[in-house]
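Before going further, learn to read the protein records used in this course. Taken together, the tokens spell out the fold as the letters spell out the chain. A record is reproduced here so that you can trace the correspondence yourselves:

***
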Amino acid sequence: MTDPGRSADHDPGQGDSRGPDLELRAVRGMGEIRPGNDLPAIVADALAPLAPQDGDIVVVTSKVVSKAEGRIRPAAEREQAITEESVRLVASRAHPGGITRIVEHRTGLVLAAAGVDASNTDDGTILLLPVDSDASARAIAERLRSRFGAAIGVVVSDTLGRAWRVGQTDVAIGAAGVRVLEPVGTDANGRPLLVTAPAIADEIAGAAELVAGKADGVPVVLVRGLGRHVTDLDEPGARRLVRPPGDDMFRLGSDEAYRAGREAGRIDALAEAGAQHAG
């Protein structure tokens, strides 16, 4: 994805306030990933023809990470797997096909069905999210940096819905060597951006999904042109993007919040009645 009106070697820092050119390349030839495969080595081999360089970012879909890690269960165990992967029910809704559960995953992500998915996997099986997507991203980044002698960042992506918008988009659930949040700065007029913090890693994951697609067999995308966001491997990973509970203004679904409020009111009323009786 490159601006056709600009040359590939254009330097955005030389009197031009526009952003840099951005190139996204589908990485092909990985084949089917199976449990126990050396995924970092497979990704490196597939990337070699594209000559990775300093500042490149590699986006890897979580499904191939889960497959390599053996995070596969029989489809019949789907509901059990959702329960085991969840630490808290956020909301649930009944529908003709069953019940949709929005839950807090053990990693802090809030998503439908704890990320348990039956797409792009063998019939009769389901995939769970990776054990630790930040650690998985770091393992891939370490291998790529060693193989190509270049500072390369890695994002592990997955598809999430949005609470206030229809449809889904890919976001970062793991990252290594990538600045996941843009530092707070100023707008074009020099005014401080007090609450604006672009989720760079999510934007990268969403852009990569446009190239990978859902059914094209492309689990890895090379992103070139965002080297300013590539960092050392000690940079915080995608876990940093999970909103802390104390800052979460929408911690429960509406029905669950109503029930909690009614229950709290009932307990308060009983306590007040007990205090009056004791008096």
